[in-house]
């Protein structure tokens, strides 16, 4: 199996996510590749939000996603485990492990809808099964993720903040009502309204 492919699982992830395309739309940060290694340059991101987006890219690569989705941004917030966004999610029972499981289950359901069984592919491939995308392969940003990041900047301005934090990214994610991340949270019994309410509650406490 060549390194330019994502393995059997990764190849099918592309089928499930065919709507994702690299898009030149404006985003509040840009990603470039340097000598085969990802170098992400952020504008107004604080350390926590920068860590969360870098973690999101790692999650997308590990899960075989052919582009960075809004669900990966959510996973990145949970994985970085820094800031009030992660605190708000964890207080509602949303964990990294649980979110990863939901992401994979949603992928499995999407593949099943086009006649592909992820479990059967796993069984047939055995040790050769590889979902992870090779490190040298660039992962573009999906339209949903771009929309969330653009909205994050708008939330930052709306709230009068001079930095872009994980809370702004989370609010951007929640604004995508039809996005994968919101549907993933819904499957975990958590609505956008619940998350927003907890988020602003924690912001209020932090403000004193």
Search tags:
single chain; Double Clp-N motif; globular; mainly alpha; 208 residues; disordered N terminus; two-stranded antiparallel sheet
Q: Order of strands in the sheet with the most strands? A: 1-2
- Bulk shape: globular
Number of domains: 1
Instruction: Give me the secondary-structure category.
Output: mainly alpha
Q: Considering the protein shown, what is the CATH homologous superfamily? A: Clp, N-terminal domain
> Quick one: biggest sheet?
2 strands, antiparallel
- Number of DSSP strands? 2
Give the C-level CATH assignment. Answer: Mainly Alpha
Query: What are the secondary-structure elements, in order, as H or E?
Result: HEEHHHHHHHHH
Mean pLDDT equals 79
N- and C-termini, Cα separation = 56 Å
Helix content range of the residues, please? 55-70%
Any guess at the CATH architecture? Answer: Orthogonal Bundle
CATH topology, which one? Double Clp-N motif
Radius of gyration: 17 Å
In terms of per-residue confidence, which ranges show pLDDT below 50 for 5 or more consecutive residues?
A: 1-41
So how many helices?
10
Q: What proportion of the residues form beta strands (DSSP E)?
A: 5-15%
Describe, in plain words, how this protein is organized in 3D.
Helix content is 58%, strand content 6%. The chain is mainly alpha-helical and 208 residues long. The chain has a single domain, classed as Clp, N-terminal domain (Double Clp-N motif, Orthogonal Bundle). The protein has a two-stranded antiparallel sheet with strand order 1-2. Helix 2 crosses helix 3, helix 3 (70-80) packs across helix 9 (180-187) and helix 7 crosses helix 8 (166-174). The longest helix is centred in the middle third of the chain and has 17 residues, at 96-112. The chain is globular and about 55 Å long. Mean pLDDT is 79; it is low at 1-41.
